[in-house]
UniProtKB/TrEMBL annotation:
Organism listed in the record: Microtetraspora fusca
PANTHER family per UniProt: ALDEHYDE DEHYDROGENASE-RELATED (PTHR11699)
InterPro entries: Ald_DH/histidinol_DH, Ald_DH_C, Ald_DH_CS_GLU, Ald_DH_N, Aldehyde_DH_dom
Protein's name in the database: Aldehyde dehydrogenase family protein
SUPFAM superfamilies recorded: ALDH-like
Gene3D superfamilies linked: Aldehyde Dehydrogenase, Chain A, domain 1, Aldehyde Dehydrogenase, Chain A, domain 2
A Pfam family assignment: Aldedh
Length: 490
């Protein structure tokens, strides 16, 4: 099996590795050390034109392949991902700064997603419609859009590549992917594997470059037929404005401020580690991170104490030490998170643990002072519901705790947010769990677990300022197709 090399300072356009036409290159750094890992191409407008043109040329041929052929290629891609897990995991972990085991988990998730859409490719159907009288036939067909632009952030690059590229390709679209400028290596490596799997040139193109330049040029390009964006709410708004000019449909998966709602009757031995994991995994840099803990007042003190002890036990280190938590992605993110930590006590929150830059690495390099962007896992109690810490996405390992009394107040507080991504309910009372699941305004709900473990094809959907999309599961095939109605007089 050939090694999975990404040529320095290049991107993948029309089935070939290519340098940027005129913008040079961008360094990609390890956030634990600040050292450069390698350079990638710095895409500009000319590269965007090339990639969109390649995708447009490839579209008619690709759309004309049978769904089973597309499924077979996706299956081959998934197999190749499975054979390169370690290399892909190292790219994902080093780029983002997460522990290697976290990178490995993301690659397995990506492989599972590609495999799922390999199976879904030939199961996309239209419907036949009822008619007013005999002598008519009405039916619908699902057709691909054409060229899909996919723009993703840096936190889980392999998962987000798979989750958006695989359904778009399965449905017969071609794709121009723009990963984040700070974590492009896993997406490039995945695209190289797609090339080796046999996807024709131009079907999947990857442009590496900055958001304000390559991202903006791609999402405002008149040759693009559908835009899929995953990232911050602010950038989502900018992209939607750009898309309005070309009247192009947009799928948005944006930020979150997800609550864990913990009732006194929950199984605490299951809930507490899961709640800690929900805000420390990937250093809290997940859109669905459990950043708010709403806990029944009668057990709050005991719960906060147990959570604080578990947070203090989280071991920090660089990606290759493979401990529990790595650094934040960048200096900008580090300064932003420290800003929240400094402001929270002034807004009335009570610091329970953490609260600043991490002073030591754990593990083999114990005691060594981290030179990367490490912050301590942090818990604030009694957080004012009007404060920035309670209302804004921090994107760091910072938990905001609030007490509630009774189910009605739990529902009210759960919904007291601009975001609507995920809500997790912890209780052994089934009726109460069903009531909360029904009344919460979020795209996803999980009960007695964090997120959707154990469910296949779970819809990764959003409400409110978290965006709107039909991601994950079979709904994604519909997201990447347009429905055509046909009416015939026989
Ligand atoms: P970001 O919005 O800064 O950047 C995301 C992507 O958009 C990057 O590729 C960037 O280069 C590009 N971009 C930036 N400005 C652009 C512009 N004007 N036009 C076009 N593209 C542009 O987000 P980020 O800091 O990379 O990621 C963190 C955010 O992503 C958080 O808000 C997080 O919640 C969100 N996120 C959401 C989901 C989800 O499924 N809802 C998943 C992961 C992350």
């Amino acid at each position: 099996m050939a090694e999975l090399l990404i040529p320095p300072a290049q991107q993948l356009i029309d089935g070939e590795w290519a340098s940027a036409r005129d913008k040079g290159e961008l360094p990609v750094t390890d956030p634990a050390t600040g050292q450069t890992i390698q350079a990638v191409a710095r895409a500009g407008r000319a590269d965007v034109d090339d990639a969109v043109a390649a995708a447009r040329r490839a579209f008619p041929g690709w759309a004309a392949t049978s769904p089973s052929e597309r499924g077979a290629l996706l299956r081959r891609w998934a197999e190749l991902i499975g054979r390169h897990v370690e290399e892909l995991a190292a790219h994902e972990a080093r780029d983002v700064g997460k522990p290697l085991s976290g990178g490995r988990m993301n690659v397995y998730i990506a492989q599972g997603i590609v495999d799922y859409f390999a199976g879904a490719a030939d199961k996309l159907t239209g419907v036949t419609l009822p008619t007013r009288s005999p002598g008519y036939l009405g039916y619908t067909v699902q057709e691909p859009y054409g060229v899909c632009a996919v723009v993703i952030p840096w936190n889980v690059p392999s998962v987000l590549t798979a989750a958006n590229v695989a359904p778009a390709l399965a449905a017969g679209n071609t794709v121009v992917l723009k990963p984040s400028e700070v974590a492009p290596l896993a997406p490039l490596a995945l695209a190289e594997l797609a090339r080796r799997a046999g996807f024709p040139p131009g079907v999947l193109n990857v442009l590496t470059g900055e958001g304000a330049e390559a991202g903006a040029a791609l999402t405002s390009h008149p040759g693009v037929n559908h835009i899929s964006f995953v990232g911050s709410t602010a950038t989502g708004r900018a992209i939607m404005r750009a898309a309005a000019e070309n009247l192009v449909p947009v799928k948005l998966e944006l930020g979150g401020k997800s609550p864990n709602v913990l009732f006194a009757d929950a199984d605490m031995d299951v809930a507490i580690p899961a709640i800690v994991g929900s805000i420390t995994e990937n250093a809290g840099q997940n859109c669905y991170a459990g950043s708010r803990l709403l806990v029944e007042a009668s057990v709050k003190d005991e719960v906060v104490e147990r959570i604080a002890a578990a947070m203090r036990a989280v071991r920090l280190g660089p990606w290759d030490a493979d401990l529990d938590m790595g650094p934040l992605i960048s200096e900008a993110q580090y300064r932003r998170v420290l800003g929240f930590l400094e402001e929270a006590p002034r807004e009335g929150a009570r610091l329970v643990t953490g609260g600043g830059p991490a002073r030591e690495w754990a593990g083999e390099r114990a005691g060594g002072r981290p030179d990367g962007w490490f912050v301590e896992p942090t818990v604030f109690d009694d957080v004012d519901p009007g404060s920035r810490l309670y209302r804004e996405e921090v994107f760091g390992p910072v938990l905001a705790v609030q007490a509630f009394s009774g189910t009605a107040q739990a529902v009210e507080m759960m919904n007291d947010t601009d975001f609507g991504l995920l809500a997790c309910v912890w209780t052994n009372d089934v009726s109460r769990a069903l009531r909360l699941a029904g009344e919460v305004r979020s795209g996803q709900v999980s009960v007695n677990q964090f997120a959707d473990a154990g469910v296949i094809g779970f819809p990764f959907n959003m409400q409110k300022d978290s965006g709107f999309s039909r991601g994950g599961g079979h709904g994604a095939m519909r997201e990447y197709t347009q429905e055509k109605g046909v009416a015939i007089r026989l």
